[in-house]
Design a protein that fits this description.
This protein has about 100 residues and is α+β, with helices and mostly antiparallel strands. It is built from five helices and five strands, in the order αββααβαββα.
Length: about 100
């Protein structure tokens, strides 16, 4: 899921939905929302470069407890399509939906 950490923060604080937002840790940007991406700010760049590209950027520290909880709910949905899905991280998974599609054609 693209921008997962930022999406969790925007879900919980609607004021963040209309501002450029970056989740950063140790002065590195982990992810951004789509508004920040319009300024060229992407994950994996230093926070000082993000601030230079977008001076109005709102920076937040990650809240992994929140992200783990949201991820758990997301992965419950995945089991409807493939109960043997492969977790890749909090916001990624690999699924084989072949059987689901055959059963629900």
């Amino acid at each position: 899921m693209d921008a997962f950490y930022a999406a969790c923060e925007m879900r919980d604080n609607p004021k963040l939905r209309d501002v450029p937002l970056a989740i950063e840790d140790k002065n590195m940007i982990m992810t951004t929302n789509y508004i920040a991406r319009e300024y060229g700010v992407r994950s994996g760049i230093p926070a000082f470069i993000g601030k230079r590209l977008c001076p109005k950027m709102v920076f937040m520290r990650p809240n992994f407890a929140k992200y783990r909880e949201a991820s758990s709910k997301f992965k419950e949905v995945l089991t409807l399509y493939d109960d043997k899905y492969e977790e890749v991280g909090l916001d990624e998974a690999n699924l084989d939906v072949t059987d689901y599609l055959i059963k629900h054609d």
